[in-house]
Amino acid sequence: MIRPWNADPSAEFRQGLLDASCKGDIRRVHALFEILKEEDMAESSLYYCLLTETARNGQADVLRYLFDTLSDCLRPLPWKTYNYQFCLPFNYHEDNLHGDNHTSYSGLNVLLYALEGTDPPAIINALLDYGLTGNHDLNSDMSLLYKAVEMKKHDVVKLLLDHGADINRQKPELVLIKAIRSDDPDMVSLLVKHGAFTEESNAFEYALTNRRIRSVTRLLELGADINDTFAMRRNRNGDLSKVRAGTPLHRVIMARPKQPEATCSLEEMVRFLLVKGANADIVNITGKTPLQVARQRKRKEVIKIFKEFGVKK
């Protein structure tokens, strides 16, 4: 979708430039830019709209042309993290494109529009050629990699990883847990194969206790121990350390029965673990087996499943 330009004496020209950019008509874009220079109609809000809408519409060749042409984009490389990327209005509002009160600048929305658009990999790849880095931060709390994982943009995630994105740069488990929360096994595989910590994070613990069964399946395939009696937990200082937590069976049974966005029931997860070979005889730190914990917590349906598998104690 191409957004209309606000009405003014040069609105038709501007709309033509915007239409050509969004349709990928590079020859017309070039011709109109020559007129733009001659008529001295350039302004930062026009540049901003061109860049964001070109990114949204997946026109990578036009975007490259804009970066080569617009003086606002010709900045030292690489982009600085989230405080300054290139000179574009940050407080953009489509109802006030011609305001002169733009005092704060950022390329944040260009990146977000690229991720939401029709060809995210092509646009992000172009931006990587013009100073974007794999480790770019959208703000102090969120990296571009994290946002791409959140939006399930597998091709963009791979592109960022291939360009040096460090999965473990912030909290080691943060990006991987975002993939697990969405129960996206292919994203989990991609992150683990590119170095996401598994043994040194609580990712498997999170997948178990929040009942993301596809992610549990994939993590087991990638080497998680179905009978591991240790789990990673955060201490008061926020650091992760290994603690005795019982087996995955123990932890699943002890977790809250109702889990928002769980992709399987408690009973289905217990059955799955038993089918996969989970040992029901291992005791936890208090000396209880998973069945004994189920009895203690009155998990009647879980108790029935243990009986189906011949577990008696």
From TrEMBL:
<dbReference type="InterPro" id="IPR036770">
    <property type="entry name" value="Ankyrin_rpt-contain_sf"/>
</dbReference>
<keyword id="KW-0040">ANK repeat</keyword>
<dbReference type="InterPro" id="IPR002110">
    <property type="entry name" value="Ankyrin_rpt"/>
</dbReference>
<feature type="repeat" description="ANK">
    <location>
        <begin position="140"/>
        <end position="172"/>
    </location>
</feature>
<protein>
    <submittedName>
        <fullName>Ankyrin repeat-containing domain protein</fullName>
    </submittedName>
</protein>
<dbReference type="Pfam" id="PF12796">
    <property type="entry name" value="Ank_2"/>
</dbReference>
<dbReference type="InterPro" id="IPR051616">
    <property type="entry name" value="Cul2-RING_E3_ligase_SR"/>
</dbReference>
